[in-house]
Amino acid sequence: MRIFYLLKKELIEIFRQKELLPLLFIAPLIQIIILGYVVKTDVEHVPVEIINLSKNKHSVKIINRIQQTPLFEVKHISYQNKDVVETLKKGKVKAVVLFRDSLSNVDKKTQRESPLKYPAARGTYMRRLCWNTLQPSVPMETMKIPIQLNYPEIQILMDGIDSNTSSIAAGYFNGIIKKYILSDINRLGFRLPVENKTLIRFNPRLKSINYMGPGIVALLLTILTLFFTSISIVREKEQQTMDTLLISRLTPVEIYIGKALPMAIIGMIHMFVGIAVVVLWFGIPIRGNLFYLLISAVVFLAAILSYALMISTIAATQQQALFFAWFSMITFILLSGLFTPTQNVPTVFQPLVKINPLAYLIKIIREVFLKGNGIEYFYKDLLALIVIAAVIISLSLLNFKRFISK
User: Fold this and answer.
1) Three-class SS of residue 15?
2) Can you tell me the distance from the alpha carbon of 405 to that of 361, in angstroms, rounded to the nearest whole number?
3) SS (H, E, C) 280-312
4) Which residues are paired to 153 by β-bridges?
5) Phi-psi sector, 378: left (phi>0), alpha (psi -120 to 50), beta
6) Burial letters for 108-135: b for 16+ Cβ neighbours within 10 Å, e otherwise?
7) CATH code of the domain occupying 46-187
8) Residue 104 and residue 150: Cα distance in Å, rounded?
9) Where do the structural domains in the chain lie, given as residue ranges?
10) Which three-class secondary structure state does DSSP give residue 78?
11) pTM of the model
12) In the structure, what pLDDT confidence band is assigned to residue 61 with cuts at 50, 70 and 90?
């Protein structure tokens, strides 16, 4: 029962700091909402300029489709040739789409008089699409020559500075053009010999918030518990109240647990509030059992709080503790798979990924939220998290006992 008095003392000390209460309880809600809108990787409203040098009716119809989609924002449509590289250098548009009549349909005299040259500069992402001939879906013995459908030649030039946006937007362009051509040839009674149909499970609309939202909850859980716990013991040293705890009837283990429990309770409250925000505000569905998520969060908190207490015993001042916590937090986040897959991490740094507790929590929370998986699907990750927590707790306790024995 003695440990509960220490728990009460720590909670009173936390709530007595009125200036920290908004930072502790209101700021996380605001951060979840802001980050939910900011960290989205969806590509929308990409500024585009269109140069239409084609007299083909299909170019007008494709341009209309590009204008109607929310994926692109057509800034200007030009009907005269211009320096595409200079347009991209100005930075007002991220893509330029060129329409011109296929060279197979232009006589040699016109080619000599009006050569169309569109050089691709360094730093640009270029795609060239040309749909001109199609074989009709009729028996070979009755087919004599290919059917000429006379589609324009299309060249897409992307600003490759933002490689992620460029590659995704280029895929969108290809999808719009391909969908138009397939619908047109189907209308004429033709079909391709092979068509691919993609079925996306678990996140069919490919909304990035469904993927990032649960990870944001784990991120804030890490930040709050790591920062506030890392200064708990060093604050006692600076205020010279640590000796009072040491001469009390509390054992070192009880002091250790009493320092960790308050932030563990607050951390669990933050997690459930964060889950409520991403579910109610962003409409992210929960397909799995929250009980498994609760177990994983408790194990994760045991690991992260033990690590924070180890920082607090090593640091001499609160500033040092905050610096160590900040450095650790950045490392945890970069190697967690929150923003980029952990498979992209170089092989030499993969061992750091394997011992990162945040990486396992984010993987488990996404399994529960998006796939609705039970523990039989991620028990290996949970076991790894338990082993990491056990090792960190052991090291932290040994370091704490060495600290109080000085």
Assistant:
1) helix
2) 34
3) HCCCCCCCCCHHHHHHHHHHHHHHHHHHHHHHH
4) 100, 130
5) alpha
6) eeeeeeeeeebebeeebbbbeeebeebe
7) 3.40.190.10
8) 9
9) 2-39+216-404, 46-187
10) strand
11) 0.81
12) very high
